[in-house]
Amino acid sequence: MNTLIQNLRSAKQQHLLINIYQRDSEDFYTGYVQMVGDDGVVVATYNDAGLADGAALITYDAIDSIEIGGPDIDSMEFRIAAAAKEDFRALPAAPLALPLNNESPIAYQVAENMRRTGQVVMVIAFDIENYLEGQVTEVTQDHFTMNVLNKFNYTDVRSIQVDFANLGVLEYDGYDLFLASAMAAKRDTLRHVTTVRHLNTGNLSEVLGDARDEETLIAVVGRQSMDQFYVGRVAAVNETFVVLSLVDMGGQFGGYSLLRLRGIHSVIVASDYLQSMLMYETWGATHHFVQVPKLNRERVFDANDDLLANLIGEGEVFGRVFRLRTAMTKEPLIGTPTNVTTDGFDWLPFGDPQAEPQHFKMVQVLALSFGSVYSYLQEQWIQDNSEE
Known about the structure:
The protein is of the alpha+beta class. It has helices at 2-14, 71-85, 106-117, 175-184, 204-214, 272-286, 307-318, 373-387, and strands spanning 17-22, 28-36, 40-46, 52-59, 63-68, 120-125, 132-139, 143-148, 159-163, 167-172, 196-199, 218-222, 229-237, 241-247, 253-260, 264-270, 322-326, 333-338, 344-349, 358-361, 365-370. The chain is 27% helix and 35% strand.
């Protein structure tokens, strides 16, 4: 523990970008250390797009290890610099500068700051199964109390107590939490809707066609990983594929995904979460806030074309970076296609030019995602490193 704290203090003094890996989780935080306390560390975090993503208090019991330097850190430093150079906007306005000191436990200070400001926070605790968002209403030396704001289920109205001894992470000041705070101000107007889900019984092209015509915000759940889903609007659909114009967790444009219909488990056309995302999206549009203006939000797709072949061929010509899911791979792959033929292609993993290409057939592709800010920055990375 002493070595961990010394390394964190050194990272703060030298203003080093670091990764903090959590125990029993594949998630990790990337950012700059703001404060090192006896019970935890506060980090100014960044998302994969290089955008400032608020801050996180991470207690020492939640930390598995930290990483200072390496290929992933180099890539993130590039993305952060690119986001700053191209004037990407993380938040509509700079967050409040909240006081922190060495006179009391840092977890207590952060919780008390959140209570005073009333903003929504995200909490991970060792005695809570899932993460929770909500507003801190009371803070004592041993615990804090939080009114839960569940954007997935508006009937979940409760108050919980989080003991500092069980606290793992407390996130605050990020854009999605900023929007959750705006939603919390309208808590009394939130109305629960029954989830409407269409299972894939062979008629999804009709369901998706109706969603396209009505410009409905929908969620699409894949068969491979049913705990993950795509949110967006239908840009094109035929008997084999659907193209979604995606909306990310902050209601911002999130690129596109081409999905094979047989790889879809279900389509949700109404839910509380979709209401929340529509509210977030509407807030951004009403306040003319766009994090990454240069992305192509107006792309048109012709459902009569061979959608997959066209995209794969375009990817080879222009060096596009895709996120690929296939029937042959458990995890998604990030990379670029090459040696494209009418029935298949080779796959070059992103960031590993020495890796052997992997061959896939067109019929094996279940999902192909592209056009997001992550893809844009990865393509910039490739271009910059190719010129050296």
